[in-house]
Specification:
This protein is an alpha+beta fold. The chain is 27% helix and 30% strand. A 7-stranded mixed sheet has the order 2-3-1-4-5-7-6, sandwiched between helices.
Length: 653
């Protein structure tokens, strides 16, 4: 049986040490490494060894009983959480490590939220019970109050005999079991199978405890884990899988890591992925740390890597699985790359594009006008690590400007945008209705255009143009979002319409519509959860208000106040330092991306960014018409009256 398990935690909770113990006790490694000794098996990268943190989601293999385990040790620092989320999507089970001293910390909340979103069955291991201040019962109480009441201590479970307390716990949550219990008591015939099913369906969360560093309780916990986890992969179905990681080896070979969801994949077979690309698999590799073994085939449930796929992207479905994965964690900061004067910028861009293939959240962009490279990041630590990676891999020194907030733009009212593109021997016209969309839903398209006006092929082409790139707003040039676009009508010419004409007309229609309505600047917000002593609550509430945030009614748990709400990233991104200062490090702060909402200081940001909507080289709101064999430009104010198609009422008119 193949099982993929992920080890997740807040930084310094001990997950890498826990992983080392699992590998050692299953004879996967001969000697246990330590993070502080720079000898951990899964923290193999030099940067990880030097910094003592996990940066990359690397995998080990464990053979135990009748199962093959693929063990993924994930980053615990918030700056590398997109790497963690990509790994989560291929996990069968997760083990969340929580310190018995610190309890649930900020990033643990993020981990738990992602596991719930992606529906990953989860075990808890309360670590560091040997340390002063450790309190297992307090942590269990925190898990029950903050995460789930369906957690159960399995430290006394030996894999076969079930305590009366556990049986009653399960029976209370399942009518079939309750009836069985009332009729036949606690005979073990049904209980293990049912417990496995309840864990798979996230109706039961087993919890153990011990010390990974002192090797207390880890072996016993994994013994229970092995008995209580099953997977249901089907080998006899067509092959399907999911890409979760891209890496380039020292020779420049692109390696595509994936999880087999069903069926069998063999070397030399052609594999479909992404948007219908088809390429031949030239190698299949099974990795254990940095080492790999070449194999001829892999089956459902296995983690592996292939060579031969030149364009596969992280999140792509492969084989029978076509849909692309969606991710919750997105960077909210943007930074400009500062290169040495001698460095060719286009060569540097090539290197950054390789890094983007490995980490799509970087979203590397090239600004032609300024000859600048920009990228998206989660925080300052990520930039420090990127600088080291770039020097190590490409032997170039780079710096990064101070990260800036990533803004977006939207509209407040409905309008219709008109675009016409008719230089000599070209022709396209497009009418688009623009409506404010649901917040944080991006751009949505539908067509209300009759096929007598535009063929289905051209309607699909217009849709494709709307989604082929991010579109600039007119306030700051930031990406447009949260807009519903409806194609009302348009016109082509049998002789003069050529490739690219409808792109021009579509972009001009979109831009012309923006010129006619109230536009709004949006900024990223955090959802926050802050836990402090009750007497410190007033200070925190005042800080939230000063940061233009909103908070819900405070809750009190024992002597603690728990505050939740949302707040702009721009005003709160450094608050962890402030909180740690006045709470002497005892305050807890969890920040997760909450989406985009109206900017709290819109006018100041617009003035500071100084975007000139009339000087954007990629966009114009004017249209081009033709008269006497020559094209001429018509401004957006006058273009609407000159359109060739009769106006059609919008869908909500």
């Amino acid at each position: 049986m193949n099982k993929t398990i992920g080890i997740l935690a807040h930084v310094d909770a001990g997950k890498t040490t826990f992983s080392e113990q699992l590998l050692y006790h299953t004879n996967s490694i001969k000697k246990r490494g330590r993070v502080d000794h720079q000898s951990a098996f899964l923290d193999s990268h030099l940067i990880e060894k030097q910094r003592g943190i996990t940066v990359f989601a690397d995998q080990g293999m464990i053979e135990h009983g009748n199962s093959t385990y693929y063990l993924i040790d994930t980053p615990g620092h918030v700056d590398f959480s997109p790497e963690m989320e990509r790994a989560i999507q291929v996990m069968d089970f997760a083990i969340v490590i929580i310190s018995a001293v610190e309890g649930i910390e900020g990033h643990t909340e993020t981990v738990w939220s992602l596991l719930k979103i992606h529906q990953i069955p989860t075990f808890f291991f309360i670590n560091k019970v040997d340390r002063t201040g450790a309190d297992v019962e307090r942590v269990l109480t925190e898990i029950r109050s903050q995460f789930t009441t369906e957690v159960f201590d399995i430290s006394s479970f030996d894999g076969s005999n079930m305590s009366e307390e556990l049986i009653e716990f399960m029976a209370e949550r399942d009518e079939e079991l309750l009836d069985y219990y009332m009729d036949k008591g606690s005979q073990p015939t049904l209980w293990i199978d049912k417990m496995q099913e309840m864990i798979r369906s996230s109706r039961l969360y087993p919890c153990g405890y011990g010390s990974a560093l002192q090797d207390i309780g880890v072996k016993e916990f994994f013994h229970c884990f092995d008995h209580l986890t099953t997977t249901l992969y089907k080998k006899d179905e067509p092959f399907s899988g999911r890409v979760y990681k891209i890496r380039y080896d020292d020779s420049g070979t692109r390696i595509t890591f994936m999880k087999a969801k069903s069926g069998t994949l063999r070397v030399r077979e052609e594999l479909m992925y992404g948007n219908g690309d088809m390429e031949k698999v030239t190698q299949i590799r099974k990795y254990n740390g940095t080492q790999f073994q070449q194999v001829n085939e892999v089956n459902a449930g296995e983690l592996f890597a292939v060579t031969g796929l030149t364009n596969a992207a992280v999140g792509d479905g492969v084989g029978e699985l076509l849909e692309k994965a969606e991710y919750e964690l997105v960077p909210t900061l943007r930074s400009r790359v500062v290169l040495e004067p001698r460095m060719n910028k286009k060569d540097a861009l090539t290197f950054f594009k390789l890094l983007e293939a490995e980490d799509p959240s970087l979203h590397v962009t090239w600004e032609e006008k300024l000859q600048d490279i920009h990228l998206h990041v989660m925080g300052k630590i990520q930039l420090e690590v990127l600088r080291e990676i770039i020097f190590e891999r490409f032997a170039i020194q780079v710096q990064f400007e101070r990260p800036e907030i990533l803004y977006k733009e939207t509209i407040e009212t409905d309008t219709i945008g008109y675009g016409h593109f008719e230089p000599l021997r070209h022709y396209a016209e497009v009418h688009l209705q623009l409506e404010p969309g649901k917040r944080n839903c991006g751009i949505v398209f539908e067509s209300n255009c009759h096929t007598d006006d535009l063929s289905i092929a051209i309607q699909n082409l217009i849709c494709q143009h709307l989604f082929e790139r991010e579109h600039h707003g007119i306030l700051t040039g930031s990406p447009l979002t949260d807009i519903k676009v409806t194609l009302l009508t348009g016109r082509a010419h049998n002789k003069h319409t050529h490739g690219g004409d409808f792109r021009e007309a579509t972009f001009r229609a979109l831009r012309q519509g923006l010129e006619k309505v109230r536009n709004r600047l949006l900024e990223p917000y955090y959802s926050f959860k802050i836990k402090v002593d009750i007497e410190q609550m007033g200070r925190v509430l005042s800080d939230i208000q000063m940061a233009y945030g909103e908070f819900n009614t405070p809750e009190t748990i024992d002597e603690k106040a728990v505050l939740t709400g949302k707040v702009p990233v721009a005003t709160f991104m450094e608050y962890s330092t402030t909180l740690a200062s006045f709470t002497q490090g005892k305050g807890q702060l969890s920040l997760t991306f909450a989406g985009y909402y109206p900017c709290h200081n819109e006018e100041d940001v617009i003035d500071r960014l100084g975007y000139d909507k009339n000087a954007d080289p990629e966009y114009t709101s004017s249209s081009i018409f033709c008269a006497k064999g020559a094209g001429y430009t018509v401004t957006w104010e006058e273009a609407e009256a000159m359109m060739h198609c009769p106006k059609k009422a919008g869908m909500n008119s």
